[in-house]
Write a structure and sequence with these properties.
Helices cover about 30% and strands about 10% of the residues. By secondary structure, it is an alpha/beta fold. It has one domain: 3-Layer(aba) Sandwich (Rossmann fold).
Length: about 300
């Protein structure tokens, strides 16, 4: 029987690698060895950095679907993750939560458009855009007509007022930076120096912007558990420092937005899985060949998992 998880075990005031014992599960270990047996109910207000369902997108370019696939193969009966979601950008995110999900993962606690049972949601995630928001300080009005910090505080306050949960964490899922602006007119035209500069900027000013959002939210609501899930950092370091750097950009990216192909969303899900469950994804994960992950990544699965565990 899966055990209800009320904490990922990470220090809620830190975005580094510190891991603390979970309050409800023995699944958290310093080496991240998969334990399974956890249940986590989530709701994400997201965009295509989390779920790419247009263009070449499909069920394999959804972080949520990948989280479900990873969780079900965890030991001890698997981990269970449920997920409701609202697609769009922060200026269009609406509450109460609505009955929406992805192809393979939904929430049993969101029915219709209602706060009913939404107090069961343990993780509420927000996915900032990567094209307009980063041009402005988080507390300043962006070209989309809102400022991130006050907008997210408005949404957090609505959750607290209408569906409070003392064990809830609010997370900023930090996605990746635009690939346009580095001199290429298409993914095929990207060069190694362009990718290197993109990674450098992603780990520099772009990363700082997303961390500043979280810092401002924490300062405004110090009694709440507010965290960054730094998927961006994990992906950039994985791309730079592992076998992933042998793959041409055309294997990873559909366009310069960049919307990813299945391999990239799979890697994003590995990082998010670790953040959510505070353990590594299952050992000897069995891939379905129709899921579209590159063979080099599949054959180096455990090395990549171990690397991401060390850097998130």
């Amino acid at each position: 029987m899966a055990q209800k998880s009320t904490s990922s075990g990470k220090d809620p005031a830190s975005s580094d690698r510190l891991r603390l014992p979970s309050s409800t599960s023995s699944a958290t270990q310093s080496d991240g060895k998969p334990q399974g047996g956890q249940t986590l109910d989530t709701y994400y207000m997201l965009n295509s950095l989390h779920n790419h369902d247009a263009g070449a997108g499909n069920a394999n370019t959804s972080t949520g679907n990948w989280l479900h696939r990873l969780a079900r193969q965890a030991p001890n009966g698997g981990n269970i993750i449920t997920m409701g979601s609202f697609m769009g950008f922060a200026n269009g995110w609406e509450l109460p939560p609505r009955d929406a999900g992805q192809e393979e993962i939904r929430s049993p606690y969101v029915r219709g458009t209602s706060w009913t049972n939404a107090n069961q949601i343990e993780v509420v995630g927000f996915v900032p855009d990567n094209f307009e928001g980063p041009r402005f300080a988080p507390d300043k009005m962006s070209g989309l007509g809102f400022a991130y910090t006050p907008r997210l505080l408005q949404l957090i306050d609505a959750w607290e007022a209408n569906a409070p949960n003392a064990n809830r964490r609010y997370i900023v899922y930090a996605g990746w930076k635009l690939l346009s602006g580095y001199g290429a007119t298409s993914v095929a035209a990207l060069t190694a120096p362009m990718i290197s500069n993109w990674i450098k900027d992603s780990l520099g000013p772009y990363d700082a912007w997303q961390n500043l959002i979280v810092a401002q939210l924490r300062a405004a609501r110090p009694k709440l558990d507010i965290r960054i899930h730094n998927v961006n950092r994990a992906l950039m370091l994985t791309y730079r420092d592992t076998v992933v750097n042998t793959l041409p950009p055309t294997v990873l990216f559909e366009d310069l937005a960049p919307h990813g192909y299945p391999t990239f969303y799979f890697l994003a899900a590995v990082a998010e899985y670790i953040e959510l469950f505070n353990e590594k994804p299952p050992e000897k994960f069995v891939f379905n060949t129709t899921w579209g992950v590159n063979p080099i990544v599949m054959s180096n699965y455990q090395k990549i998992v171990d690397f991401i565990w060390d850097v998130v």
